[in-house]
Amino acid sequence: MSKLAIHGGEPVRTKPFPEWPRPTSELKDAIISTLENEGWGVGSQAIARFEEKFAEFHDAKYCISTSSGTTALWVALKAAGVKAGDEVIVPPYTFIATASAVLMANAVPIFVDIDENTFNIDPELIEDAITGKTKAIMPVHIAGNPVDMDRILSIGIKHNIPIIEDAAQAHGAEWKNNKVGALGTGGIFSFQTSKNMSAGEGGAIVSNNETFYDICYSYHNCGRTKGGAFYEHQFLGGNFRLNAMASSMLIPQIDTVQEDMTLRDKNRKKLDDALGQLDGITINIAYRGTTRQSNHIYLTRYKSEYFNGIPREKFYKAMQAEGVYTYMGYTPLYREKLFVTDGNEYPWLKDYDFASLEFPVTERLADEEAVWLKQNHLLGNEEDTQDIIDAFEKVTSAMSINPELFKD
Ligand SMILES: Cc1ncc(COP(=O)(O)O)c(C=O)c1O
User: CB of 168 closer than 6 A to ligand 1?
Assistant: First the structure.
């Protein structure tokens, strides 16, 4: 066994992984062309073109582009009818925006634990969390791995609760051959820098429901109504619109994200095949209805009991020294300080005690087991992917055979 890089050995890898985002000449041309020839904001054809193409890409009738995924979430919640004091079911293992958008809609995020096999909201636990105040269920396709949409949609139908998909990480992902996003009432995407499609910042809402779409339009556009006067405002909306330069750079990415997906699929499979063989490393699985994952980031689980009890943090350190950066990812959202709210500022939260919440699966995965690779790790060639595997093999075998190498 070669010497570990943490002990001065040769690292598996010294090169960086592929660059992300990619400032291609196609994107530069698209921005300049819009800058010189088209409107920059409201009414720009570049925005209309992007919305039409993204709706088509996501098997949806309608798309509204927004300034971010967070604003898309807020707009979608408002359009779904979420009002002050209502409850919205969300997972606690996600980016903060999933829950903070609920708070910004003056509603209450009700957390439901996740499934250890997928890192996604556990559909078996959702019904127990439904109360008379539940006005939406907002599952998140974490890492681009679709949630169990059949189960969740049937719960929505049974209880007459809209399903809003947080598909911020799931561009191109499919459930039973349909793209995610518009499978329920509607869904949102993010185009923030790290996402598989990026305009630096940006977001979108997709839907097949015309009424929902019309209301989203109003909330994202200063409360204006379709066909109404420019200075007529019927909803308390805001300016949550995407600008035309961002739209124009997203249009070519509707094609390139699909090419990238083929590469991501291939690299994902190579990683799964190899890492799935390692005792103590558990690969993430997909629900049966999943026909495609977007493979935004690669999630796996580290079981310290297979590695002489060596804590996960030592694994990260050793991997980083080998040239492959792995990390822990999310912490349970309900532990964030923002949930310790001031009753004067957030009176509708006064009866909820987020600090006392405990979700065993979320906590075990977040605190002990989750190992994330970054999204650009999935964009490399065979050799790059092999380096990731070699680093995993080198570090985990040292942990199993020579635990004393990891003593402080
Ligand atoms: C699951 C999830 N939801 C919502 C968001 C919010 O998107 P944005 O950063 O574009 O506001 C993100 C990304 O950052 C996300 O990963």
Answer: yes
Assess contact for 108 and 134: CB atoms under 8 A.
Answer: no
CB contact at 8 A, 379 and 295: no
Torsion of CA 198, 202, 208, 213, to 10 degrees: -170
Give the atom of ligand 1 at the shortest distance from the alpha carbon of 169.
16
pLDDT tens-digit readout, 14-51: 999 999 999 999 999 999 999 999 999 999 999 999 99
Q: How much distance in Å is there from the Cα of 201 to the middle of ligand 1?
A: 10
Task: Judge if the beta carbon of residue 190 lies within 6 A of ligand 1.
Answer: yes
Distance 194 CA to ligand 1 centre (A): 10
* Residue whose CB lies within 8 A of the most ligand 1 atoms, among 68, 70, 201, 372, for a mutation test: 70
The Cα–Cα gap between 260 and 18 comes to 12
pLDDT in tens, 130-160: 999 999 999 999 999 999 999 999 999 999 9
Strand order in the sheet with 203-207: 62-66, 203-207, 186-190, 164-166
- Helix or strand or coil: residue 32? helix
Full set of structural domains in the chain with CATH: 25-252 (3.40.640.10), 254-406 (3.90.1150.10)
Residue 388: closest CA among 117, 20, 17, 118: 17
Q: Whose CA is nearest to atom 10 of ligand 1?
A: 69
Verify whether ligand 1 is closer than 6 Å to residue 165 (CB atom): no
Distance of CA 40 to the CA centre of its chain: 28
Burial of 366 (0-12, 13-18, 19+ CB in 10 A): buried
Residue 169 near ligand 1, beta carbon < 6 Å = yes
Residue 375 CB less than 6 A away from ligand 1: no
CA distances from 322 to 316, 380, 385, 392 (A): 10, 17, 14, 9
pLDDT tens for each residue of 276-318 = 999 999 999 999 999 999 999 999 999 999 999 999 999 999 9
Q: Answer whether 101 contacts ligand 1 (Cβ < 6 A).
A: no
The label of the residue with tokens 């305009």 reads 199
